[in-house]
Amino acid sequence: EVQLVESGGGLVQPGGSLRLSCVASxxxxxxxxxxxxxxxxxxxxEWVARTRDKANSHITDYAASVQGRFSIxxxxxxxxxxxxxxxxxxxxxxxxxxxxAIDGSYDSWGQGTxxxxxx
Amino acid sequence: xxxxxxxxLSLPVTLGQPASISCRSSQSLVYRDGNTYLNWFQQRPxxxxxxxxxKVSNRDSGVPDRFSGSGSGTDFTLKISRVEAEDVGxxxxxxxxxxxxxxxxxxxxxxx
Lengths: 119, 112
Description:
The complex is a heterodimer of chains A (119) and B (112).
Chain A: E1 3-7, E2 10-12, E3 18-25, E4 33-39, E5 45-51, E6 60-62, E7 70-75, E8 80-85, E9 94-102, E10 105-109, E11 113-117
Parallel strand pairs in A: 2-11
Antiparallel strand pairs in A: 1-3, 3-8, 4-5, 4-9, 5-6, 7-8, 9-10, 9-11
Chain B: E1 4-7, E2 10-13, E3 19-25, E4 38-43, E5 50-54, E6 58-59, E7 67-72, E8 75-80, E9 89-95, E10 102-103, E11 107-111
């Protein structure tokens, strides 16, 4: 069974940093794209970042709204994906989901981790 | 980016009655491999999104057959044949044909 478990969310002041983690299990980690998708309070779903599979050299991509502030990475020994978030602002407040991307779709979602940016 | 437009944004329905949600894309979602990458997700209150339908009309395992997807090109529809109480939530369409992938605004389904 595919599982994605996020952690690392919390309350942080504007300008601060946070690192989210996503532990993956139930599939060959290096063979899949993994994305972070977020949902601001009462709002819709917004793609944030992507790390591609081994065949695509794990190339990364970022939404324009987080480019230069967020960084996505993998630890293969731990089957984990991380989202390092710097220079956070109130607009980054959201639930952050780790999702497996496959064949033009998201087939598995984590439970999400809440990030709140507030003074 | 491909813009996904859902309608209606709010859908009050009577239990046991049908419901229909429309999703339109600003570009054709037919990929060069011939597949059409249009997905539907359900997000129940307080839960993570869950995929219901992929490639227009393929239901995920465990999804009741009262849910069906149809459409082609730029126009797509999610239908619920008989709404049940557990269907309350927000439904999103999403395209995976063009990078970057994009979501519709969401349609909130509630019981009248």
